[in-house]
Amino acid sequence: MGALVSSSNELGTATLIAPNMVVTAAHVIQNSFYDDPDPDEWIFFLGDDLSDHSSSSGWSSEDSYEVSQFLVHEGWLRRQSAEHPLGDGDSLGVDIALVILKKSVLGLFPARIPNRNDD
Q1: Which of 102, 106, 105, 72 lies closest to 89, judged by CA?
Q2: pTM score > 0.85 for this model?
């Protein structure tokens, strides 16, 4: 688990799902209040205690990973409008985005998708 933090201190949770890929909610990085997200303005911070981190200054640089690219679900983008900047994509299950990191996280197993046999 971790967080995505922008240079303007926007913050959202994110989960490592592959050595160089993170999943987050689309509304964290993309809505009609602001332009397309610039990957250079975002950092992924790896950690499981987000309570003490209200801005990027509260994170350790050794746990930080630069962002290379965002892949926002197309359904999320289509559902936004000036009247509804967040759209209704969350109710349709499309409030999701992938974040590609510039370097891989080493020595850590990414989260796995549970199956029917998991508790």
Answers
A1: 72
A2: no
- CA distance linking residue 99 with residue 22, whole number of Å: 5
- Cβ atoms 8, 88 nearer than 8 A: no
Ranges in the chain, pLDDT < 50: 54
CA distances from 25 to 61, 96, 118 (A): 23, 4, 24
